[in-house]
What does this fold into?
Amino acid sequence: MLTQYRACLVGCGRMGATIDDEVNDNLPFSHAAGYTAVENIDLVAVSDPIVEKVETIQKRYHVLNGYTDYREMVEREQPDIVSVATRPGSHAEITIFAAENGVKGIYCEKPLCCSMAEADAMVKACAAYNVKFNYGTNRRYQAIYWKMRELIEEGEIGNLQCVICHCGVSAAQWMHTHTSDMMMYLAGDPEIEFVQGHITANDSDWEGDRLNIDPGIPMGYVQFKNGVFGYQLAAGGYEFEASGSKGKLRMLTNGSGLQCQIGGGQPRLIEGIPRQRGTVTCIQDLIQAITTDSQTLGNIQLAHRSQEMIMGFIESHKDEGKRVTLPLENRNLYVGRRDW
It folds into this structure.
């Protein structure tokens, strides 16, 4: 018989509960929809400062208890798993509180947080209380991206030389958390030696070490410690390319297909890969890690590393495009809009 787990949701907004209204393929996308689709999870409570949101999501997902204070919810409900789906400015605070108050697992939306000081504190709290953690970079939990990494590791394209991310200028924290995570994932999740980057920000956007906007990233360069190069480009399409000594793998627009080209041959599509959103797999992976005391696919150390990549791009721009060696020296560099 499967062990039943209790989950609580902090944040009844888009990623927490309503993004499913924007798609029509019936695949669970939001945290709440993901929990209702997993057999051995009960979503026992939700919280949000806006009481109307709480009541709406309670009704939609048949959740018994609702709160406007997440602390009260965690203390009363004593959940096994907490989902953090608020604006980024509170992610560190909620994660640390949940870890210190008995939860076994945390599913945290991206971006991880707004500074490396916050990220360091999140890692410390999860380690201190043996809390399993999965990050909301959903591509990491999808079979088509697993297949791409599998083919890389099997040597299908020879020795991996670089990963190229065609993801547009977009926004560092809001969207390029996905880009940095997938660049790392396809490179084999190695540690980072240094980064260089350029962002779209004006001098007036800065207050000391605080950047009060979520800047675009037209260009980012990464040197991984395993020798792989990473490139983040302004070219659109949300496509990822892995280039090796024998050929290339290319993830077509936002995971719509995986293409392989060896040498000068014609590209071919890799067939038979199931479609996934990643939310359910992420939750199931978190349960597996709790049950077996093992590591998750999107663990806190990897989330910390991809966040530091983004902060490194921003620090590089601030330092006139110079190379920034990681770990980042300035742990207090803060990136976040005022309404976060």
Remarks:
- The chain has two domains: 5-137+279-299, 140-274+304-335.
